[in-house]
Amino acid sequence: MANFLLGRAATLALVLFGASVLIFLVVRALPGDPAIAMMTSNATPEEIQAMREAIGLHLPLWQQYFTWVGGAVTGDLGRSFMYSTGVAGLIAERFPVTLHVSLVALAIAMAIAIPAGVLSARYKGGPIDHLFRIVAMIGISMPVFWQGLLSILLFAVILGWLPPGGYQPLSAGIGLSTAHIILPAVALGTAYAATITRMLRSSMLDVLGREHIAVARAHGVPERTIIWTDAFRNALIPTLTAAGFSFGYLLAGAVLTEVIFNLPGMGRLLYESILSRDYPLVQGLVLLNVTLFVLINFGMDALYAILDPRIRR
Amino acid sequence: MDGMFGRRAAMSGLAGILAAASLPRSAGAQPRGTVTASLLGNLPNIHPWHVGNVETGAANLLAYSNLLKVGPDGTLVPDLAVALPQITDDGLNYTFELRRDVRFHNGDRLTADDVLYSYEQYLATGRRRGNLRRFISNVTKDGDHVVKVTLRDPWVGWMRLMGYEAAIVRRGTDVANEGATGENLYRGSRTAGCGPFIPKSFQADVGVEFEAFPDYFGGAPATQTIKLVRIPDAATQLANLRTGTVDIISNCPPKDFAPVRQEPGFGGAVRPSAGIFYMPMNVAKAPFDNVHLRRAVACAVDRDYICEEIYSGLVTASALPASPNEFWYEEDLAKQFAYDPDRAKFHLRAAGMPRGFAFEAIVPVPSAYVEAREAAVVMQANLAEVGIRMNIRQTDFVSMYRSAQNGDWQAFPHPSMQSSVEDYLIWNNYHKDGNQARWMGYRNPAYDTAVMESFRYLDEARKKPALRKVSEILVEDCPALWIGRLNAYHLWRADISGFGPRYSYFMDLTSARKG
Questions:
Q1: Do the Cβ atoms of A144 and A152 come closer than 8 Å?
Q2: 3 state SS for A109-138
Q3: Which residue in A2, A98, A149, B42 has the fewest CB atoms around it within 10 Å?
């Protein structure tokens, strides 16, 4: 097991290094000049050049890269051009918001997807299956922003039960915090629930069609045990993959959801940073996203190994 | 970004449903003594000298003061100065007498040294210092309460820029560093300003909170706490206004403004502003190096339709830089660019292109510019009627400015907020020394002379002959298609008073109160 994990970790380190080079180059390939973004259209060419020097863009690319990577390995992601403050500090302000929303959204997604996927598979072709498939199709098809707007209209404007947006941390009180986060989490969670439901249904059907399930049924093993112990556990591997990737996407930030619900999360920060060509901030955010994906992948690999010992070999 | 287009359209539809369906509710109502206003654009910092948009400008007005300020209707009024300055006949020397009752937020009294320090530092480090540096020769003092500003060339418009961008800070304030001396202008200093409110907390792109400064020289503010929160979507701002989470919103989709304003429980107002919706054309490059083609475009676009149907009347149609309600608007000149497809065809024939031509228009994509994109589509249809093909290229502002700086552009239809159209835009865009004129490619010595003549005077009657000349030359040369002048408009809940839109478009919350 240890060798398996060490091998995976070494691969991931290589992936991170490659990603850092790619991120650095792609960000600089974006059309536009950060100095112009900072100075607006009214600046003289001399002022723009002075700004380029002030933010280090006059240095050779390799020097800029090693300065950035050298800082990144010590936790210093540089200084944001637009916000005039440290990138790490900005991310530290925003990440808890995104993490909070993502965890609640994932919990909602799993709470919906697991029973829906299992029941849909168990009663394949029946009314329950059709109902869940239709609901899942709607969940996948309906844009999150539309669902978000409808929920704001209903629960905030018409009923007045919940605030229309904004964020309150858990430290402000669990009730207040939950009231602010529930609408965006539901909007995001239901969208991902639809994907995970379909994945789980498909995996369950695959497992339920195997020989060992037929043998178990022939031996009189109760259907509940077959579904939840034999089939569900085996169907979890692809489902966990889907859930893991969903979590990764959630952590990367959902721009539209954050805009609609006025959540100061990572997605909105990334969007703003791209618009203003804030290289250090874009690099820092994308590197963090890549790192999170890599770590989630690593976690998924470890989980697979626990769930299915054959994978370790 | 196509998705954003659809999203905003959907939001407008929803907002219409809201307008018909509900009264204001009080789910998240703020306590008395606090006024919360929402901002649409980014709030990256609140450094008073790095005003990059109207949002940072709103924060600046709360915490800082200047020698003069721009009043709601665009006129200059004294702020830290006792009165408007004495100006010498040559238009080069300005003398300001300072109030003697001004204290900074840390209790220090304002003196001429603070003004000198601020100007010296601003001209060295301010983000948009280029325009003031072009004109200001030096700033000196005469005693503790008299400041003299000497210009290189006459330009009364510098006082409008000063009012927005070059706030006075306490001498010795660390204007460049972040926290090195315990001060941080980017995130809000509690000791640097002398405005009616003191920054209390700031979170980039999220919001800023101010508390009243009881020793403000204009009298203690009526409201204890002002909160500016960023809500980056106009329709969501409206939802927050309806629920009472915010008291004032900076923007809403134009189509929603009039219906919501008329609903019980809400207030709102419109005021002519210094903003302009126009399409500069690259006169240094084909096809717009041909004046007849520029005129053909100017005559082929139906401004009234764009202003009334796309902007719901919140842009005032004008074929000139001046608005019909401004003293320097010239009706006879405007008629030359009235919507007239036959006249457009005449100019096409005069250019030797009777069957039309094609050009590319760079259109901004950020969601706050949805109407600009819709207006571009209308222009495209108008122009097609006379055989002109306008190809739309959507891009963000940074790419757009990059193209402009490189000369890689032909036309650029967009709304633009300015501190003053007559004193600023006509210089910056078309005068040989204007920063934007460098990429506009427009040069006309007669125009430069007329502009500098108009800059000599503050008095409208004395300015008007020179501005008439300016307008005549602009109509003759047609370096841009002027579509209309933006109006500033805001919505608020009915229990808000002491607040209204301003010529500058910046939200001025200094006198806003609730209840």
A1: no
A2: HHHHHHHHHHHHHHCCCCHHHHHHHHHHHH
A3: A2
Probe site for chain B from A30, A41, A85, A276 (most B CB atoms < 10 A): A41
Decide: residue B313, CB within 10 A, 0-12 exposed, 13-18 middle, 19+ buried: middle
Best mutation site among B22, B228, B236 for testing chain A: the one with the most A CBs within 10 Å? Answer: B236
Q: Which residues of B touch A165 (CB under 8 A)?
A: 231, 236, 239-240, 245
Instruction: List phi, psi (to 5°) of B194.
Output: -135, 25
Q: Please report the ipTM that was assigned to this predicted complex.
A: 0.78
* Residue B54 neighbours by CB under 8 Å, 6+ apart: B41, B250, B417, B504, B505, B506, B507
Q: What is the DSSP string of B231-289?
A: ---HHHHHHHHHHTS-SEES---HHHHHHHHHSTTEEEEEEEEEEEEEEEB-TTSTTTT
Say whether B150 sits in a helix, a strand or coil: strand
Q: B454-506, pLDDT tens digit by residue?
A: 988 888 899 999 999 999 999 999 999 999 999 999 999 999 999 999 988 88
Is residue A135 within 8 A of residue A116, CB to CB? The reply is: yes
Which residue in A73, A55, A156 sits closest to B127, CA to CA? A55
Instruction: Say how far apart CA A146 and CA B256 lie, in whole Å.
Output: 19
Return d(Cα A291, Cα A294) in angstroms, integer.
Answer: 5
User: Do B239 and A157 make contact, defined as CB atoms within 8 angstroms?
Assistant: yes
Instruction: Please name the residue that has the structure tokens 């920054």.
Output: B199
Beta carbons of B28 and A163 less than 8 angstroms apart: yes
pLDDT above 90 (res A123)? no
Q: How far apart are CA B47 and CA B196, in angstroms?
A: 16
pTM, two decimal places: 0.83
User: How many of the other CB atoms lie within 10 Å of CB of B431?
Assistant: 22
CA distances in angstroms from A189 to A151, A181, A298, B329, B504, listed in the order given: 13, 12, 23, 56, 43
Counting every residue, how long is chain A?
313
Q: Are B260 and B60 in contact (CB under 8 A)?
A: no
Q: Tens digit of pLDDT for each residue in B155-183?
A: 888 888 776 777 899 998 888 765 555 67
Place of tokens 């919940």: A162
pLDDT at B287 over 50: yes
Q: Is A47's CB within 8 Å of B130's CB? A: yes
Query: What single-letter DSSP state applies at residue B359?
Result: E
B233-259 b/e (C-beta count within 10 Å ≥ 16 → b): bbbbbbbbbbbbbbbbbbbbbbbbbeb
Cα–Cα distance, B306 to B286 (Å, whole number): 26
Contact B427, B470 (CB under 8 A): no
Of residues B69, B46, B72, the one with CA closest to residue B58 = B46
B136-141: strand order across its sheet: B86-87, B93-97, B146-151, B136-141
B391 by Cβ neighbours in 10 Å (0-12 / 13-18 / 19+) ranks as: exposed
CB atoms inside a 10 Å sphere around CB A21: 11
Residue with tokens 């109006």: B487
- Chain-centre distance for alpha carbon B454: 21
Kindly write down the DSSP assignment for every residue of B433-496, as one continuous string: T-HHHHHH----HHHHHHHHHHTT-SSHHHHHHHHHHHHHHHHHH--EEEEEEEEEEEEEETTE
